[in-house]
Automatic annotation (TrEMBL):
It is a multi-pass membrane protein. SUPFAM superfamilies: Family A G protein-coupled receptor-like (SSF81321). SMART domains: 7TM_GPCR_Srsx (SM01381). It comes from Phrynosoma platyrhinos. Interacts with IL8. Interacts with GNAI2. The chain crosses the membrane at residues 46-70, 82-104, 127-149, 161-180, 217-238, 250-268. This is C-X-C chemokine receptor type 2. Belongs to the G-protein coupled receptor 1 family. PANTHER family: C-X-C CHEMOKINE RECEPTOR TYPE 2, CELL ADHESION MOLECULE. Residues 62-313 form the G-protein coupled receptors family 1 profile domain.
Length: 359
């Protein structure tokens, strides 16, 4: 499989330039003849780059506000707030790399091998830590609502260790990026790319490992946890007429739907690519190009999830808006009357012992 492939559909034309997979020489006999390569137009390439930059700006602003609000309210910080803080930090670190990926999309990789490895590791750490943190947030929401009598202080002593464990585990799972990420010319092209460059007889085995790990620990396991916790939580909320808990249910549903919207298409494409490259399904030029285009396209949705987190977990929450307004009042940027009018208009209540201070 020494060449790239073509696809008659428009989607391939959009993303064909960046369809680079783990090893182009692993299965040279998998196709009978080389397939043509069609590059995306400059307009499309720059549009995708611009989209990455917009996601970067929204992510930096939104997640910075989350960090500001959570750190400002140290005394009322809950377990979920600690997870939200770490989630915002992970998204901030990843957002810093988006301009680099934007240049790669629009042109080629011009930043060298060190930056290739570093940005790839940050991308993977964000992928793992972000979804794992979402899973632990769902566990905390489950405990807070289903077991509402449990005191929040009973859980605070171990939440920091959980967060440290998530970061360490995410970094360990990202180590293959350091070992195999390289800068090399794309097949049949002089343009440089930043991608995995796995060689030798162990190529197929490592390809499976590198794909199974993120799909298992970065998607399937957290998804099962989230579906269980949120399923039980929503069932419990349906049994109550409390308006505050009904609003919490809306946030929970938004969490699940946006998570699936952003990551399910990418992981389906990743699964199809794994099946194709391990020979489970027959490989043709059309299938190869279609899957590569789907991976490139759905990756944009995955990247966009980093800027959606503040909207889901913070801006929808009345408590976050209230605490943000309190900061503005403390800084003299708005009057106390505005804060009081907001509290009255939103029926804000601060008596919620087992819930997050930002949701």
């Amino acid at each position: 499989m020494g060449d790239t492939y073509t696809f008659d559909g428009d989607l391939s034309v959009l993303f064909e330039k960046f369809n680079f997979t783990y090893d182009y020489t692993a299965n040279p006999s998998s196709v009978s003849e080389p397939c043509r390569t069609e590059n995306a137009s400059p307009v499309i390439r720059y549009f995708v780059a611009l989209l990455y930059c917009l996601v970067c700006i929204v992510s930096l602003v939104g997640n910075s506000l989350v960090v500001l609000v959570v750190t400002y309210n140290k005394g009322n910080r809950s377990v979920t707030d600690v997870y939200l803080l770490n989630l915002a930090i992970a998204d901030l670190l990843f957002a810093l790399t988006l301009p680099i990926w934007a240049v790669f999309r629009a042109h080629e990789w011009i930043f060298g091998t060190v930056m290739c490895k570093l940005t790839s590791v940050l991308k993977e750490v964000n992928f793992y830590s972000g979804i794992l943190l979402l899973a632990f947030i769902s566990i905390d929401r489950y405990l807070a609502i289903v077991y509402a009598t449990r005191q929040a202080t009973e859980k605070r002593h171990w939440v920091k260790f959980v967060c440290v464990g998530i970061w360490v585990f995410s970094l360990l799972l990202s180590l293959p990026m350091i070992a195999y990420r390289e800068v090399f010319p794309a097949p049949n092209s002089s343009q440089m790319v930043c991608y995995e460059n796995i060689r030798g007889n162990e190529t197929t085995k490592w390809r499976v490992v590198l794909r199974i790990l993120p799909q298992t620990f970065g998607f399937l396991v957290p998804l099962v946890i989230m579906l269980f916790c949120y399923g039980v939580t929503v069932h419990r909320l349906f049994q109550t007429k409390n308006s505050q808990k009904k609003k919490a249910m809306k946030v929970i549903l938004a969490v699940v739907l946006v998570f699936l919207f952003c990551w399910l298409p990418y992981n389906i494409s990743l699964l199809a690519d794994t099946l194709l490259r391990t020979g489970v399904i027959a490989e043709t030029c059309g299938r190869r190009s279609a899957i590569d285009a789907a991976l490139s396209g759905t990756e944009i949705l995955g990247f966009s999830h980093s800027c959606m987190n503040p909207i889901i977990y913070a801006f929808i929450g009345q408590k976050f808006r209230n605490n943000f307004l309190k900061i503005l009042v403390a800084r003299g940027l708005i009057s106390k009357e505005i804060l009081m009018r907001y509290r009255k208009g939103s029926s804000f209540s601060s008596t919620s012992g087992n819930t997050s201070t930002t949701l």
